[in-house]
């Protein structure tokens, strides 16, 4: 590729609304442009990177025996009624009508469609096991799209779905997918962990998330360097022995019906005058509903909360100092989310542990007005108010737990018979008996990986691509091409030779001065830079610098090819 014929559009300024490094750098490098909330155009540069990721994912899926297909992104309501998810999926499901007033959704995932495909296509156990995959655009109406393509509304996913006669067969494919995912993220040059994940509402027997380790990650992880133990925090909490630490300070007030409590009732229980209540937040979790009642300002001066059944005797007022003293950490805080009620949500140990969704309301209506918020709404910064803390012995006893943060880039699941049963997907076994199939599902966030890689690998000058993801491996930069045709020619011939040797190379023939040209190449993260100059030609060398080198050096043509080979 010649850059003069490409559309490279870098910008110097750090975009004001981009909070994390990957988002800033993707905008500065001109990889993505925002169309609307959670919707991004991938520029030619951005797309080159995403295609590289896609290719690695595809190769490893095929190597692991999966077969590629493509399903529609628009899906009919009827299928989602069959699985029971038309209502249950919640606000992330974007629903629409066609001209005949028929209901559809834009697919956030494809269990229904693939199960429908399988029940029509698969008749006999002899056809099994099968693992179908696609690389396809999903839409989820995320409550809080942010960080650019990291949490977008429209994004590219690789999703795979396997079909089996027996649970044992499902386990085999699940293990193969675990291996394939490990190979994918290793090939992509990412530091990652496969963590044990809760199967939660989806049910099933096993689930692992693949997490790219990064401070900006939205997920909390517990892992050990000395042992293979690794789990996401929900799972780690679920397994932690109960009662070892002080009870969560805010997992306190239980309510049966989340949406119809009056604010009077809540404040009466808590003993806080209604006019002093700034916010009341109900959090529903596995152990029922809890309420948090805030006084003071957004800095969380006071949290008043209580277990409903034991009220009012057990209510206690906890100041930030109390929380700090009891747990060694300050409570986390979530800023306003863009809902009509616009309630900041406090996240503390209990919420992080328990919340399946949050309900919020304020005192303006006198009744408490509740809305079910997506699970995602609760997470901004989860305070480390946990049952599992740094330094705990890992459950296998072989190491100590370290808490870290991660970006979920892949997720594998043993679904069991949930969808096949609900939708009647069966095959005949060797006795001629109809048997419901077992299923697994396996997702990779292809577009999210691009952002995750940058989050993990960048410096002040810009992106540092792993070789496998770089838009080009090598940049050939020409110094002063207009005044020195010999230099332009030499660069052109080097570019041709590298390309012919199968080395993905870009020729920077834009005629920029060295400073801005080098800055661009660093910003867009090209792993290897070769400079062709008049002086170099005289000496019979090129100037070479790896993106991670601190200094450039002069190398001969042969040495260069050896280096890049
Ligand atoms: P998250 O917890 O981040 O919301 P998820 O658990 O809802 O993700 P899955 O249903 O497991 O996501 O989907 C498979 C993969 O798709 C995820 O592991 C992630 O990499 C990617 N993904 C999910 N939601 C988004 C999004 N809004 N933007 C970009 N990628 C996403
Ligand atoms: Mg999600
Ligand atoms: Mg998740
Ligand atoms: Mg997931």
Automatic annotation (TrEMBL):
UniProt KW keywords: Aminoacyl-tRNA synthetase, ATP-binding, Cytoplasm, Ligase, Nucleotide-binding, Protein biosynthesis
Gene3D superfamilies named among the record's database cross-references: Anticodon-binding domain, Bira Bifunctional Protein, Domain 2, YbaK/aminoacyl-tRNA synthetase-associated domain
Catalytic reaction(s) noted: tRNA(Pro) + L-proline + ATP = L-prolyl-tRNA(Pro) + AMP + diphosphate
InterPro entries found in the cross-reference section: aa-tRNA-synt_IIb, aa-tRNA-synth_II, aa-tRNA-synth_II/BPL/LPL, Anticodon-bd, Anticodon-bd_dom_sf, Pro-tRNA-ligase_IIa, Pro-tRNA-synth_IIa_bac-type, Pro-tRNA-Synthase_IIa_type1
Primary location: cytoplasm
Listed transmembrane segments: none
Family: Belongs to the class-II aminoacyl-tRNA synthetase family. ProS type 1 subfamily.
Reported function: Catalyzes the attachment of proline to tRNA(Pro) in a two-step reaction: proline is first activated by ATP to form Pro-AMP and then transferred to the acceptor end of tRNA(Pro). As ProRS can inadvertently accommodate and process non-cognate amino acids such as alanine and cysteine, to avoid such errors it has two additional distinct editing activities against alanine. One activity is designated as 'pretransfer' editing and involves the tRNA(Pro)-independent hydrolysis of activated Ala-AMP.
Protein name: Proline--tRNA ligase
Organism: Luteibacter yeojuensis
């Amino acid at each position: 590729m010649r850059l003069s014929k490409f559309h490279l559009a870098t910008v110097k300024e750090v975009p004001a609304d981009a909070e994390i490094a990957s988002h800033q750098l993707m905008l500065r490098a001109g990889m993505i442009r925002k169309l609307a909330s959670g919707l991004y155009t991938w520029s030619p540069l951005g797309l080159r990177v995403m295609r590289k990721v896609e290719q690695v994912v595809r190769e490893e899926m095929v190597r692991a025996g999966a077969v590629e297909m493509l399903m529609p992104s628009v899906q009919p309501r009827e299928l989602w009624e069959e699985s029971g998810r038309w209502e249950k999926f919640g606000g992330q499901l974007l629903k629409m009508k066609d001209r005949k007033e028929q209901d559809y959704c834009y697919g956030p995932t494809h269990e229904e469609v693939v199960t429908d495909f399988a029940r029509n296509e698969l008749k006999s156990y002899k056809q099994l096991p099968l693992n179908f995959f696609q690389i396809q655009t999903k839409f989820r109406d995320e409550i809080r799209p942010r960080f650019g393509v990291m949490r977008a509304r429209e994004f590219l996913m690789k999703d795979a779905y396997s079909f089996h006669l027996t649970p044992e067969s499902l386990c085999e494919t699940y293990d193969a997918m675990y291996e394939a995912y490990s190979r994918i993220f290793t090939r992509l040059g990412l530091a990652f962990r496969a963590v044990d994940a809760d199967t939660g509402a989806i049910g099933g027997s096993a689930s692992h998330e693949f997490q790219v380790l990064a401070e900006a990650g939205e997920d909390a992880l517990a892992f050990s360097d000395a042992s293979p133990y690794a789990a996401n925090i929900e799972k780690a909490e679920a397994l932690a022995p109960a009662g070892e630490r002080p009870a969560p300070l805010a997992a306190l007030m239980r309510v049966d019906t989340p949406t119809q409590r009056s604010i009077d009732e809540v404040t009466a229980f808590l003993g806080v005058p209604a006019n002093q209540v700034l916010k009341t937040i109900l959090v529903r979790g596995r152990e029922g509903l809890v309420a948090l009642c805030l006084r003071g300002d957004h800095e969380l001066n006071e949290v008043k909360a209580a277990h409903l059944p034991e009220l009012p005797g057990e209510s206690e007022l906890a100041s930030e100092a109390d929380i700090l003293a009891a747990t060694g950490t300050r409570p986390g805080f979530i800023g306003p989310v863009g809902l009509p009620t616009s309630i900041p949500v406090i996240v503390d140990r209990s919420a992080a542990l328990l919340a399946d969704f949050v309900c919020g309301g304020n005192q303006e209506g006198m009744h408490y007005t509740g809305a079910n918020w997506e699970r995602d709404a609760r997470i901004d910064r989860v305070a480390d108010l946990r049952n599992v803390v740094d330094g705990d012995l890992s459950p296998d006893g072989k190491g100590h737990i370290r808490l870290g943060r991660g970006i979920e880039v892949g997720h594998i699941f043993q679904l069991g018979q949930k969808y096949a049963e609900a939708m009647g997907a069966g095959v005949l076994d060797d006795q001629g008996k109809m048997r419901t199939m077992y299923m697994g599902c396996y997702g990779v966030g292809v577009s999210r990986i691009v952002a995750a890689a940058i989050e993990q690998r960048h410096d002040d000058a810009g992106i540092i691509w792993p070789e496998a993801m770089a838009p080009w491996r090598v940049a050939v930069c020409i110094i002063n091409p207009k005044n020195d045709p010999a230099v332009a020619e030499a660069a052109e011939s080097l570019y041709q030779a590298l390309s012919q040797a199968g080395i993905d190379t870009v020729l920077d023939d834009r005629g920029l001065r060295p400073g801005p040209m080098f800055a661009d190449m660093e910003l867009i993260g090209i792993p290897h830079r070769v400079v062709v100059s008049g002086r170099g030609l005289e000496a019979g060398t090129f100037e070479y610098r790896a993106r991670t080198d601190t200094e450039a050096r002069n190398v001969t043509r042969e040495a260069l090819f050896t280096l890049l080979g």
